[in-house]
Amino acid sequence: MDDKKFDEAIKVLVMLRADVIEQGKKIDGRINEQQRALSEESDRFRRQVGNIVDNAGKTIRQETEQSLGLASEGYKKAVDELNREVGKLNKIIKSWYIGIGVVLAIAVIILFVVVRYMVVDLADRRAELESYEHAIETAKAFAESDAYICEGRICINTGKNVGNGYRQAKPRKK
């Protein structure tokens, strides 16, 4: 996952979360507004009932209380449903965060492995380069000397006029 896709995924998650929060606030505002309106209507209704005959007022009051009870139960159910939906969205958002965290952890592990491999590879290349530098120095010294290769070994000038004056160098003792 490249940085653009990751940034887009984060933006989408943030926008989704903001939308969910905004929708929740709107619904909460509507419910509060409806409850306020219902409360105001109920108060107005009660004042009117107070002017009516006692028996009629009692009957109307009882019916109003019953209807308010049903309405508040409906609102309570709506709020409960909203809370459940918000809980589901929170779980989805948490799972996205966990998924992103896992992807980031895997990316960090892969990055660590690649960096470690590069460090080891660079150390090997440094050793190889140093051996080449030593070989270059040896080749320069050989080229500047009075020696040549004969029968797979270095032949050096002995300074004697025997034969062509060159003989094979002795091998090193191991």
List the helices and strands and how they pair.
Layout: H1 3-51, H2 54-144, E1 147-150, E2 153-157, E3 166-168
Antiparallel strand pairs: 1-2, 2-3
Helix pairs in contact: 1-2
Question: What coarse outline follows from CA principal-axis ratios?
Answer: rod-shaped
- Which residue ranges are poorly predicted, with pLDDT under 50 across at least 5 consecutive positions? none
Share in helix? over 70%
CA radius of gyration is 46 Å
Mean pLDDT: 82
Distance between the termini: 56 Å
Q: Count up the helices.
A: 2
Helix/strand/pairing category: mainly alpha
Counted beta strands: 3
In percent, how much strand structure appears in the residues?
A: 5-15%
> Taking strands numbered 1, 2, ... along the chain, how are they ordered across the largest sheet?
1-2-3
The profile of the biggest β sheet is:
3 strands, antiparallel
Order of helices and strands: HHEEE
How would you summarize what this structure contains?
This protein is mainly α.
Please characterize this protein's 3D structure.
It is a single chain. This protein has 174 residues and is mainly alpha-helical. Helices cover 80% and strands 7% of the residues. The protein contains two helices and three strands, in the order H-H-E-E-E. It has helices at 3-51, 54-144; strands at residues 147-150, 153-157, 166-168. A three-stranded antiparallel β-sheet has the order 1-2-3, with no helix packed on it. Helix 1 runs antiparallel to helix 2. The radius of gyration is 46 Å and the shape is rod-shaped.
